[in-house]
Amino acid sequence: MDSASLPLGGRPALERPPLARLPDIALRYGLTALAVAILALISYFFLRLVSEARPAFAHAGVFGFVFNNEWNVSAEQFGALPLVVGTLITSSLALAIGVPVAVASAIYATELCPPRVRAPLTVLVELLAAVPSVVYGLWGIFFLAPKLQPAEQWVADRLSFIPFIGGGTVTIPNYFVAGLVLAIMILPIVSAISREVMATVPPDHKEAALALGATRWEMIRMAVLPYCRSGIVGGAMLGLGRAIGETIAVTILIGDAPRLGEHLFNQGYTLAAVIANEFGEAQGLHRSALFAAGLVLFVLTLLVNGIARLFVARAARGDRAQRGGGAEAAGSGHLVAGAAAGA
User: Fold this and answer.
1) Among 83, 133, 184, 271, which residue carries the largest CB count within 10 Å?
2) Exposed (0-12), middle (13-18) or buried (19+): which is 258, by Cβ within 10 Å?
3) By the 8 A CB rule, do 267 and 256 touch?
4) Tens-digit pLDDT profile for residues 129-157
5) What's the rounded Cα separation, in Å, for the pair 47 and 50?
6) Burial (CB count within 10 angstroms: exposed 0-12, middle 13-18, buried 19+), residue 178
7) What is the DSSP letter of 31?
8) DSSP 221
9) Alpha carbons within 13 A on the beta-carbon side of 277
10) 3-state secondary structure 119-164
11) Is the pLDDT of residue 307 over 50?
12) What DSSP designation does 48 have?
């Protein structure tokens, strides 16, 4: 028998005592038990929410609850459409504003930043995640919103011909301020994931692009960003999930108005905010309606995570195809063409 196949002690692996294999067995079953426990916990949350929300769904119907436009506690009318729309608007704004800034900061930190400034810049960006959400909310409502109100009114007046964007009088708080603060809150996680993925780009790819005559920006666009596409998409979806579930800051910033806002700079409500505001004093059907709102938020988060998995898988397949032999030759041709155009 080859000496390389002999473990410590000089005995073949097949002759190892059962006690020596115990740590491997314990690790396998322990990790399996943890994975099953997580699935069981998620299933328990879902079933408990369904059980508590059943009276509200029986009163208004599932579609009636989700798509009705009236949330009136005194009249026992519970329509979650304004809450769903407010959640989607603020989360979409956070994604549209925060992701480009986060990716740009990651590109600068990994490709353009001087080495001695890179570590302090990374720490400063990550410190944004340490600020409590209530501090973001208070800063947004007392400082940011009054400063932005004249600019928001100018945009609303100039873009009055665009539905939902322009027209009307700007209120404090509103959808836009809530989305802007959410963009700041999701920036650390998206930037950190993007930065870590960009750090894994093989140096050979970047050096080959530069050797073919590409500029620094062309190298980033053709060698770095395509390689990191799946990671950036995954980070963006994680940030979207954080924005959908944010509670305290949005409760302070969105205005707690259970109706559909007429424009982007009007007050609104979100699913998380209505639960935080009203659950303490809710009873009976009202309490069940808040559980139903939590169930809708839970399902919405699961859908976002599922869509994120699909996007990441598709981006990963595209990345693997691009790194193949034929795609590598095509990429070299694109680099040459880009270098010629830049020249």
Assistant:
1) 271
2) buried
3) yes
4) 889 999 999 999 999 999 999 999 999 88
5) 5
6) buried
7) H
8) I
9) 19
10) HHHHHHHHHHHHCCHHHHHHHHHHHHHHHHHHHHHHHHHHCCCCCC
11) yes
12) H
pLDDT at 326: 36
| 240-278: pLDDT as tens digits | 888 998 889 999 999 888 888 888 898 989 999 999 888
pLDDT by residue (tens digit) across 112-130? 888 888 888 888 888 888 8
What is the Cα–Cα distance from 196 to 211, expressed in whole angstroms?
A: 25
DSSP at 10: S
Residue whose structure tokens are 């880009």: 338
Residue (of 134, 162, 172, 161) closest to 257 by Cα position: 172
**Interatomic CA distance for residues 148 and 330, integer angstroms:** 47
Beta bridge partners of 78: 71
What is the distance between the alpha carbons of residues 39 and 56, in angstroms, rounded to a whole number? Answer: 26
What is the per-residue pLDDT across 174-222, written as a single tens digit (0 to 9) for each?
Answer: 999 999 999 999 999 999 999 999 988 888 888 888 888 888 888 988 8
> What is the pLDDT averaged over residues 287-307?
89
How far is CA 68 from each of CA 79, 221, 261, rounded to the nearest angstrom?
4, 45, 15
Tokens of 225: 């960003």
Cα–Cα distance, 299 to 271 (Å, whole number):
12
Q: What is the DSSP string of 276-295?
A: HHHGGG--THHHHHHHHHHH
> What does DSSP assign to residue 64?
H
CA-closest candidate to residue 107, choices 237, 221, 236, 233: 221
Residue 296 near residue 271 (C-beta atoms within 8 A): yes
**What one-character DSSP code corresponds to residue 266?**
S
The residue type of 138 is L
Could you give the percent of the chain with pLDDT greater than 70? 87
Q: What is the CA radius of gyration of the chain?
A: 26
- Diameter over CA atoms, the chain: 85
Please, what is the average pLDDT of the chain? 83
- As a whole number of angstroms, the distance between CA 293 and CA 14 comes to 57
Residues 34, 32: Cα–Cα separation, whole Å: 5
- Which of 87, 107, 242, 262 has the alpha carbon at shortest distance from 178? 87
Give the position of tokens 């938020």.
297
